[in-house]
């Protein structure tokens, strides 16, 4: 089991057209495309997800889609999961909602400290992203947290920890040495002219790492969000 690769969308940070860049990264082997369209109208994000799902299926690309923030869009598109950011619906509310419906996708969230990570785990998330590990254009002026704190969080949690923030092909080995379950990136893939090749190179480096993830994703990863796992 190798660590997973999440590609996160950003409306400002992409060299190719965003949808094309995401598809290229999926064809390069990305495991998750996390659709993070801050401030985009729901209809626009919904249409982007639907279009990506259709184009991924045409290409037989296996990447799963996670929706940032919008639980409603995750349900409506039967996405593989929802990622809760700092100002999203509280974890407890998202977990309760999932218990009441047929959608059974992943629920993940962003954390930035050990106590937040432990609280998120106790509230029932399936994974956390922890960052930012290195300096990142997305959060300028906030000090990076580094791999030592990442290693402590990985050690203390039983659920998968995905490292995020400034991770590149050059630094991925040091990140994976912590035993984290994956990495999430924007710039290392979406700001490249050839996201497919950049993804393939990053995955090759991930596969070469001798340290394996301490925690595996739950079985929810194997299906689309709905209980029967059928494709839409
Ligand atoms: C200290 C700190 N606070 C917030 C963030 C970013 O928050 P997040 O919920 O992950 O939202 P986006 O990253 O999607 O903007 C941070 N990195 N550090
Ligand atoms: C979206 C995001 N969230 C972070 C967090 O720490 O929560 S860091 C980050 C930016 C990731 O982009 P890049 O790989 O280009 O640094
Ligand atoms: Mg974040």
Concise synopsis of the structure shown:
This protein is of the alpha/beta class. It has 9 helices and 8 strands. The chain has a domain at 4-107 and 169-208: TIM Barrel.
Written description of the protein model:
The structure is a single chain. This protein has 232 residues and is an alpha/beta fold. It has a domain at 4-107 and 169-208: Aldolase class I (TIM Barrel), CATH 3.20.20. The protein is built from 9 helices and 8 strands. The chain has helices at residues 18-27, 42-58, 71-76, 91-100, 114-122, 146-156, 172-176, 187-190, 195-208; strands at 4-8, 32-35, 64-68, 81-84, 106-111, 127-130, 161-164, 182-185. The chain has an 8-stranded parallel barrel, surrounded by 5 helices. Helix 1 packs parallel to helix 2 (42-58). The longest helix is centred in the N-terminal third of the chain and has 17 residues, at 42-58. The protein is globular and about 40 Å long. The two termini are 28 Å apart. The structure holds the ligand Cc1ncc(COP(=O)(O)OP(=O)(O)O)c(N)n1, ligand 3NM and magnesium ion. The site of the ligand Cc1nc(C(=O)O)sc1CCOP(=O)(O)O has 17 residues, from helix 8. It holds the Pfam family TMP-TENI.
Keyphrases for this structure?
binds ligand 3NM, 232 residues, 8 strands, TIM Barrel, binds the ligand Cc1ncc(COP(=O)(O)OP(=O)(O)O)c(N)n1, binds magnesium ion, alpha/beta, globular, 9 helices
Spans of at least 5 consecutive residues with low confidence: none
Given the C-alpha coordinates, what overall shape results?
A: globular
Question: Based on the structure given, which CATH architecture of the domain at 4-107 and 169-208 is correct?
Answer: Alpha-Beta Barrel
Largest sheet: 8 strands, parallel, barrel
Tally of alpha and pi helices: 9
Order of helices and strands: EHEHEHEHEHEHEHEHH
Which structural class do you get from the secondary structure elements? alpha/beta
Rg, Cα atoms, Å: 16 Å
- Residues in helix, %: 25-40%
- The strand count comes to 8
Q: Determine the CATH superfamily of the domain at 4-107 and 169-208.
A: Aldolase class I
Could you report the average pLDDT, rounded to the nearest whole number?
Answer: 94
Strand sequence of the main sheet, in spatial order?
1-2-3-4-5-6-7-8
- The CATH topology of the domain at 4-107 and 169-208 is given as TIM Barrel
Fraction in beta strands: 15-25%
Distinct small-molecule ligands in the complex: ligand LCLJCK34, the ligand Cc1nc(C(=O)O)sc1CCOP(=O)(O)O, magnesium ion
**Quick one: CATH class of the domain at 4-107 and 169-208?**
Alpha Beta
- Gap between N and C termini: 28 Å
Keywords: Magnesium, Metal-binding, Thiamine biosynthesis, Transferase
Organism: Ferroacidibacillus organovorans
Function: Condenses 4-methyl-5-(beta-hydroxyethyl)thiazole monophosphate (THZ-P) and 2-methyl-4-amino-5-hydroxymethyl pyrimidine pyrophosphate (HMP-PP) to form thiamine monophosphate (TMP).
InterPro entries: Aldolase_TIM, ThiamineP_synth_sf, ThiamineP_synth_TenI, TMP_synthase
């Amino acid at each position: 089991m190798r660590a997973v690769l999440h590609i996160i969308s950003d409306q400002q940070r992409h060299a190719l057209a965003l949808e094309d860049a995401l598809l290229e990264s999926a064809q390069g082997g990305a495991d998750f495309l996390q659709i993070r369209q801050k401030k985009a109208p729901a209809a626009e994000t919904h249409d982007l997800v639907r279009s990506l799902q259709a184009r991924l299926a045409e290409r037989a690309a296996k990447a799963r889609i996670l929706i940032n923030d919008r639980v409603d869009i995750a349900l409506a598109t039967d996405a593989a999961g929802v990622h809760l950011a700092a100002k999203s619906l509280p974890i407890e509310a998202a977990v309760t909602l999932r218990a009441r419906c047929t959608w059974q996708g992943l629920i993940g969230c962003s954390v930035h400290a050990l106590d937040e990570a432990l609280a998120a785990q106790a509230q029932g998330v399936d994974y956390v992203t922890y960052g930012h590990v290195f300096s990142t254009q997305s959060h300028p002026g906030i000090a990076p947290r580094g791999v030592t704190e990442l290693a402590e969080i990985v050690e203390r949690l039983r659920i998968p920890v995905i490292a995020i923030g400034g991770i590149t092909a050059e630094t991925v080995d040091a990140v994976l040495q912590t035993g984290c379950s994956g990495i999430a990136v924007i710039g290392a893939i979406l700001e490249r002219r050839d996201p497919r090749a950049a993804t393939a190179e990053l995955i090759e480096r991930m596969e070469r790492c001798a340290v394996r993830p301490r925690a595996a994703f739950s079985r929810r990863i194997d299906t689309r969000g709905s209980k029967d796992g059928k494709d839409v």
